[in-house]
Amino acid sequence: MAGLIVGAILLTGWAMLGSATVYTVGDASGWSSGVDYSDWASGKSFVVGDSLAFIYSTGTHTVNEVSADDYQSCSASNYLSTDSTGSTTIPLKTGGTHYFICGVPGHCIGGMKLAVSVDAASSSSSTSSSPTITSSPSTTTPSTASGYHHAAASRPWAPRAMVAGLACFLILMAGHF
C-alpha cells in the first residue's frame, strides 16, 4: 500500500511539471518605471492557466486590468480589477488579450503598461503560439530577455517526465498484485 501512495505522489509531482507557469513581470526589475514591458514579453508564450506576478513596492504602483480602449488611453477609471498590495498575481483564466496598466497618474503614459495575448491551449501543449504584445514606446533601458520566471512554459521534456512517472507508478502497482 505504501508503494501505491508513493507512486501516486510521484505521478502527481511529475504531472505538475507540465502545468502552469508563473511569470514575474519585468523579471528582476519587477513592475516599475523604466522597464520596456513589450520587450519583456516578447518571445514568451502565455497560455490559459499561467499567471503573471507583479512585484512592486506597496503604495508606489497599482496593477489594473483594463479594457483595450482604457489601455490605449491609459485610463484606470473603469478597471476590471485592481490591486496595490505590492505583490499581485493575476491568473490568466481565459484566452485572448489581457491589458494591464499602472493606475498612478503618469505611470502608464510613461510606459507602465502590458498587453499579453493568451493562447487557450494548456501550458503542456507543444503547439502554443507566440504572444502578441503591445506597449507604448519607451526610451528606457529594457529588461533582460532571459525569461525570468518560476517555471518554463515551453518544456519539451515535460511529457516524457509524465510518462516516466506513469511508468514508475505502474511498476510500483505491479509489485502489489
From TrEMBL:
Residues 124-147 are annotated as: Disordered. CDD domains: Phytocyanin. This is Phytocyanin domain-containing protein. GO terms for molecular function: electron transfer activity; metal ion binding. Residues 124-146 have a biased composition (Low complexity). The lineage of its organism: Eukaryota, Viridiplantae, Streptophyta, Embryophyta, Tracheophyta. SUPFAM superfamilies: Cupredoxins. GO terms for cellular component: plasma membrane. The keyword Signal applies. Residues 21-120 form the Phytocyanin domain. Residues 1-20 form the signal peptide. PANTHER family: BLUE COPPER PROTEIN, OS06G0218600 PROTEIN. Keywords: Copper, Glycoprotein, Metal-binding, Signal.
